[in-house]
Amino acid sequence: MLTLIVPGLIWTRQALADLTYDLPLPAFTTLLGRGRLRHRPPLSTAVTLAEIFRLDAQLPAAALRRLALREHPGQSDWLCLDPVRLRFEQRSLIVDDPQGLELSSEEAAALAVSLAPTFTALGQIEVISPHAWNLRLSAAAPPFQDLPEAIGRSASLLPLDAAHAAWRHAISEAQMLLHAHPVNRAREAAGQPMVNSLWPWGGGRLPEFDGSSEHDALWSDDPVALGIARLLQIDGAALPAGFTSTTSRKPLAVHHALEHPARSGDATIWREQLARLEADWLAPALDALRRGKLDALRLIAPGDLATAELQVSRHDLWQFWRKPGALAKLAPL
């Protein structure tokens, strides 16, 4: 069985109808027509992964990505503390994707060294990669909004309760330090985006896992997902260019390419990525189902409006009398 998680796939019904009316998607519409589609409440990609692998819904992202990119995080509590750029757009503060900063290792190290004293009372900064920083916590941290769910959206300020007071103070100090930092001054002079804040999220310690998984491989470009693969002791790898017959009989793939254009409302890029999803993943998967090289396909589209889940078995393809389904069916009524 192939499980394919595709965030950013669901728009409103009318928007999906308008966006795809002239787009040839024979594999996708065949799968929608022959398979079984159900709608569930809105879910994030992280919660979807946690549900599939029977983990706590609040994934300890910092500990998991340290497991994937560095080494075992031990029994310490960790928190993601990622460098971000916040920008104003129509009176809202928008969180840009940290990858868009294109920080070098040297820039990240210089910024982290300067910021470390600001967070001494809260924990110790560790640069996992230029865009992924962790904080080894001195004490348990309060909950924060997950960064992947905030990217491209209006930023929510830290809560005003007492539990977040120390964090509000530290982030405010960090923002002032970043504003005048030589790294940012050099980036500004070179026309590059500046790091103007840090985003805390994904706290906790690595959970224990002694169960079994219905999947024997996890393909994703997200280090948190790859950390789950290491935790579960299954094969973990970057997302392949497309689906092909492999030695893995039950892979799970996380396909993020539609997520950013969906959030930014970039219909042109979204349509291009949907066409690639059709050509690189859905058409080969449909062919593998027909030839018996794949016994089932499960497509999960987590989103803010709803979560759609489509299941198609090889037996379902025998129902040739069922007409192709329109992509608008993915959206809730």
Q: Care to describe what's here?
A:
- It is a single chain.
- By secondary structure, the chain is of the alpha/beta class.
- It has two domains: 2-55 and 209-330, 3-Layer(aba) Sandwich (Alkaline Phosphatase, subunit A); 75-204, no CATH class.
- 34% of the residues lie in helices and 20% in strands.
- The protein is built from eleven helices and 13 strands.
- The strands form three sheets. It has a seven-stranded mixed sheet, sandwiched between helices. A four-stranded antiparallel sheet has the order 6-7-3-8, sandwiched between helices.
- Helix 9 links the parallel strand 9 (217-219) and strand 10 (235-237).
- Helix 2 crosses helix 11 (267-290) and helix 4 packs across helix 9.
- The longest helix has 24 residues, at 267-290.
Beta fraction: 15-25%
Q: Examine the coordinates and then state which fold CATH places here, giving the name of the CATH topology of the largest domain.
A: Alkaline Phosphatase, subunit A
Q: Spatial order of the strands in the main sheet?
A: 2-13-12-1-11-9-10
Work out the radius of gyration.
Answer: 21 Å
Mean pLDDT: 94
Let me know the largest β-sheet: 7 strands, mixed
